[in-house]
Amino acid sequence: MKNVCGSPPYYQRTFYDLLAMVRQVGTPTLFFTVSTADLRWPDLIQVIARQYGKFYTDEQ
């Protein structure tokens, strides 16, 4: 049953695999997700630009 995706034993095994990875490699320091619409969100672009000391308006 632990090989059936979505079953409780599957998630338990996956959880323990993740814990083992954290023990061996360490905790992750960056988690980054991207969607296909990331360039169409001016707010997101402004927030990222501010991290690099640049400031953009909606018109830019």
Describe the structure in your own words.
It is a single chain. It is built from 2 helices and no strands. It is mostly helical and 60 residues long. It has one domain. It starts with 7 loop residues before the first helix and ends in a 9-residue tail after the last helix.
DSSP strand content: under 5%
Category by helix and strand content? mainly alpha
Q: How many strands, which pairing sense, and closed or not: the largest β-sheet? A: none
Assembly state: single chain
Radius of gyration: 19 Å
Q: H/E element string?
A: HH
Overall number of strands:
0
Q: Quote the average pLDDT.
A: 85
Number of helices: 2
List the helices and strands and how they pair.
Layout: H1 8-25, H2 42-51
Pfam family, one: Helitron_like_N
Domain Helitron helicase-like: 3-48
Organism: Amphimedon queenslandica
Summarize the structure.
This protein is mostly helical and 60 residues long. It contains two helices and no strands.
Key structural traits:
mainly alpha, single chain, 2 helices, 47% helix
